[in-house]
Specification:
Number of strands: 15
Structural class: alpha/beta
Number of helices: 15
Helix content: 25-40%
Radius of gyration: 22 Å
Order of helices and strands: HEHEEEHEEEHHEHHEHEHHEEEHHHEHEH
Distance between the termini: 56 Å
Largest sheet: 8 strands, mixed
Length: 406
């Protein structure tokens, strides 16, 4: 059996299923600290020739958020615009991830090179770059949290449409992770959300599969995948003691401890897992049930280790169509991008969604799967991904698509 700590290691992955940012929660942080972070951000490279306007967007229910409208400084006339929609969690306008990396800044800069304006904004509950968060539960975890995220995104789109710099008939939505689902739901029914029909949708890390499948992958399925991919050298579905010991080599300590507790007793396979006592552990038939029980995945969505706010989020987002269900209702151009190493929103979801868009009769659709890339669209390990900004190949493909759809 896995220890409580090891079980929570697996369960904690679920909190990042659609997440990107790492927040700093402190309601007492003075405004000057947030301004310092923003000022530091303004010195980043890549903004030459781009005008950056600080804006405020009233999301209602007591929250006015900060945002930034950018556009080529020499632009003339109303511009097409990209509204950027974050992954889940309390993300700032840059979608700042661990180690100060940003998902959205390089994309905003690239879009300007193709003559586009962009709008980035802090999510409800986030006051500044960092992200710097408020502790107010009414803003951090509102009632119907996913629906509120959609409503806030719609408000941002309406804000963009009113800018004199923007052509309201050329509003593109670019979503990452959760943002792909938000973009698809809004594009599928713009009248419901009181927004102009989007001119196109770009999705990165696509939520193309049912949310229960994604959570199951994150908490339970990824463990079996890792045993197959990194431990089972001969691919026979069985682990000898030698394969188990070798598989633990170079694993992070918590991961090694987690698997050791299921596979090994010293240098022999664990007899309680090896139920047929053949001296090997069948990954699916023997390790699988142990891992399934220890993770508590069969109690979905009330999985041990998930806090109530996350369970509320899971229940709320599950009420809405995923990308493969919603996006086929949108008749405009679509571009779906996914990393082959993504174990948060697997590449299969992007392919399923693209196929559904094609089946609906949309001729202007494209999907690209990138070898070696994970959820943040950077080259990194599949099972121990490091944070990073989108790979230059991703940026180049988005630029090319934007150029052809301007």
């Amino acid at each position: 059996m896995m220890t409580k700590g090891n079980r929570n290691l697996a369960v904690a992955l679920a909190a990042a299923v659609l997440a990107a940012g790492v927040g700093v929660a402190d309601a007492a942080i003075p405004e000057s600290r947030g301004l310092t972070a923003t000022a530091a951000n303004s010195k980043q490279a890549g903004w030459d020739g781009i005008t950056r306007e600080a804006v405020q967007i009233d999301f209602g229910k007591g929250w006015v958020t900060k945002g930034e409208l950018t556009y080529p400084s020499d632009a003339k006339g109303p511009l097409p615009i990209i509204v950027m929609l974050h992954g889940s969690g309390l993300n700032d306008m840059n979608q700042t991830v661990a180690k100060g990396k940003s998902t959205f800044v390089p994309l905003a800069q690239a879009a300007s090179s193709e003559g586009y304006a962009t709008l980035r904004f802090n999510k409800r509950g986030v006051t500044d770059i960092g992200p710097v968060e408020r502790t107010d539960p009414a803003q951090r975890a509102p009632k119907e949290p996913y629906n509120q995220i959609q409503q806030d995104a719609a408000t941002a789109i309406r804000f963009a449409a009113k800018s004199p710099k923007v052509d309201p008939s050329k509003i593109f939505l670019l979503g990452h992770s959760e943002g792909t689902n938000v973009a698809a739901n809004l594009a599928a029914d713009p009248d419901k959300y009181r927004i102009p029909k989007p001119a196109g949708v770009i999705g990165m890390g696509v939520v193309g599969l049912k949310f229960r499948q994604l959570i199951t992958l994150q908490i339970y399925g990824r463990l079996l995948l890792q045993l197959h991919d990194e431990f089972d050298v001969d691919g026979d579905g069985q682990l000898t003691a030698t394969e188990a010991v070798n598989g633990l080599a170079a694993q992070p300590k918590e991961t090694a401890d987690q698997f050791r507790s299921v596979l090994l007793d010293g240098d022999k396979v664990l007899s309680s897992t090896d139920t047929n006592h053949d001296g090997q552990v069948a990954i699916d038939a023997e390790a699988g049930p142990v891992l399934r029980k220890s993770t508590g995945i069969d109690n979905y969505p009330n999985v041990p280790g998930l806090d109530q706010s996350l369970i509320d989020y899971i229940n709320d987002i599950s009420r809405f169509p995923v990308v493969s269900e919603a996006l086929p209702k949108f008749s405009g151009p679509t571009l779906l991008l996914n990393g082959e190493n993504d174990i948060q929103t697997p590449a299969r979801g992007a392919l399923v969604a693209d196929a559904a868009v094609a089946a609906a009769g949309n001729k202007d659709h494209e999907s690209i799967i990138y070898p070696g890339m994970a959820h943040l669209m950077n080259i990194t390990s599949k099972f121990s991904p490091e944070p990073g900004e989108p790979d230059q190949r991703v940026i180049a493909d988005i630029r090319s698509w934007l150029k052809s759809h301007r």
